[in-house]
Amino acid sequence: MIKVAVSGCAGRMGTAVVGAVNAAEDMELACGIDPNAKGDLDIPVYATIADALANKEFDVLVDFTQPNVVEGNLREALPAGVDCVVGTTGLSNEKLEELAELAPAGTCLFYAPNFTTGAVLMMQFAKAAAPFFPEAEVIELHHCNKKDAPSGTAVRTAQIIADARGFESAAPGKETEMPGMEGARGTFVDGVPVHSVRSMGFVASQEVVFGSLGQTLTIRHDSWDRQSYMPGVLLGIRSVGEREGLVVGLETFMD
Ligand code: NAD
Predict the structure, then answer these.
(1) Which residues are catalytic?
(2) Beta-carbon neighbour count of residue 214 at 10 Å?
(3) Mean pLDDT within 209-234
(4) Ligand 1 binding pocket includes 10 (Cβ within 6 Å)
């Protein structure tokens, strides 16, 4: 049995993870961590990772919290030798590498900017298309409660496109934005414009729009239910025990 602790257990994603871990026959839900939990879970719930580590044993910590707290959580869990499965977005590659250094040998820090198989495939299709199209832009669309923009998936997609094509786009950039209208061309991630839409009605969607002479190619993924993330989260929980150091991207384990 893999003993799992869920950080952010009272949140939207954390609630879904609690349900998925409870339903998995090879996992045991050890505890939750969330300072805003209301006491409606039938497992011990602690306000901090430090409290959880002092009171419970667990093999894997799953973190779906907030961009401003995930670093502190990992600074507690990784030195204790707990494998971490992180879905909270907002940490840079440099920060993830720095945090992974805190882990003793045999401990894994796994971060996936997106745990849906469809989004991973969208990124792989974008990687395949990127060398053939001079222009590429990313448009991500999320619910209004999302606390960070752009999304981690959008940043990762832009990085993948930039790496795969190996050339710079000649499309107009920020220098064409009208005075007082800064942001019209989006934010640039490794030279790829990224645009963030926040609206009721969405959970998580993304389009990658490629352009070439006389043709465009649009790759789109929509996540309409948080259940779409759960197979990926469970795969991460099952896989981290066999890895160590920093691992980024669900595709690592899908292969
Ligand atoms: P949410 O606001 O519904 O939940 C966050 C929870 O974290 C809250 O219950 C809050 O009380 C709790 N929390 C705050 N501080 C804490 C702390 N110090 N320790 C433990 N818990 C703490 O947010 P959400 O919609 O569930 O999203 C959580 C994160 O997951 C966001 O960063 C979001 O972007 C990300 N996300 C990632 C994926 C992915 O596939 N990687 C998918 C969806 C969401």
Answers:
(1) 142, 146
(2) 5
(3) 97
(4) yes
